[in-house]
Design goal:
By secondary structure, the chain is of the alpha/beta class. It is 44% helix and 17% strand. The protein is globular.
Amino acid sequence: PAIRERMPAVTSLADIGSGGGMPGLPLGLALEVERVTPIESVGRKARFLETAGRLVERRAGVLTRVEVAA
């Protein structure tokens, strides 16, 4: 994608105050990074991100790891 051409050296990213995973999870997919770390302090949002991260890892086959920091 065009964004990958502008940021070729990105291998991991952190999304502080991730909420519902925007923009961290879609950006991680677009950049094909090795690791995405959504950081969320609200428990229910962090649990959602853990579930969403597992689905992204399984379906995309692109991200090697989604680690939620709560």
